[in-house]
Amino acid sequence: VTGIVILAIGIWTKVDLYKYLELSSIYQPEAPYVLIGVGAVIVLIGSLGCCCTIKGHSVLLYMFCGFLYVIFIIELSAGIALLVYRGKLEKGFKDGLSAALQQYGQKGEGEITDALDELQKKLVCCGIDDYKDWYDTPFSRSSALPNSVPESCCRISTKECIHTGLTNETASVNIHTQGCHKLVVDFINGNMGPIGGVALGISFFQVLGAVLAFCLAKSISRAKYEQVA
């Protein structure tokens, strides 16, 4: 079960969360693959443990017990790290968003441009702290009119969105004015905290599994010894 949970978190991170995580200056793109790999290994080891139990191989059960302790240490460390470094991840988003705004729409920055558009559309936000962060960017300076923001800042309900040459009045009507950073931080706190807590919680199931595997292996060894005697 633990392996399936970690595998699911890894897939979820790769499929959904990466759209936000890749904008962080400290994001490690291999992290989802590590979670998927660890989850798959745990599922495999768990399956082997079941086979060992059915076959009654005490030596393999002892090995299975050792594997569970190693997995426990990995999961415990990962859960603690996720909770401890959550603050750094939040700052990483601040720095990453600042860099993304400067790179937006530039040659060779298609992935950053698409990721930022996706973020602003999905979280209905614009800029870092507010929409005016766009004013001091290459995108706005290269526009026909100053004080411009991307179309991804437009409100869905606005049919003919004005997103160039903005004033306070036209901005409040045509675009989303709230910045993305606070929304991303709220998203992190709403998801990373529980994920870290789940990782810590399920890690203790490995200890329980290791203890039960050890007791079973010891019982099998004793039974075999008594049969020989």
Provide a descriptive summary of the structure in words:
- This protein starts with a helix and ends with a helix.
- It has a domain at 2-88 and 192-228.
- Helix 1 (2-21) runs antiparallel to helix 2 (31-55), helix 2 runs antiparallel to helix 3 (58-84) and helix 4 crosses helix 8.
- The longest helix has 49 residues, at 180-228.
- It is built from eight helices and no strands.
- It has helices at 2-21, 31-55, 58-84, 86-103, 110-122, 138-141, 168-174, 180-228.
- 28% of the residues are buried.
- The chain is rod-shaped and about 90 Å long.
- It is mostly helical.
List keywords for this structure.
229 residues; transmembrane; 71% helix; transmembrane helix; single chain; Tetraspanin; Tetraspanin_animals; membrane; mainly alpha
Order of helices and strands: HHHHHHHH
Helix content: over 70%
Residue stretches low in confidence (pLDDT < 50, at least 5 long) are: none
**N-to-C terminal Cα separation, in Å?**
39 Å
Radius of gyration, Cα only, in angstroms? 25 Å
Strand content: under 5%
**What global shape is seen?**
rod-shaped
Strand-pairing-aware structural class: mainly alpha
Number of helices: 8
Mean pLDDT: 79
Largest sheet: none
Q: Report the count of strand segments.
A: 0
Family: Belongs to the tetraspanin (TM4SF) family.
Keywords: Membrane, Transmembrane, Transmembrane helix
GO cellular component, one term: plasma membrane
Subcellular location: Membrane
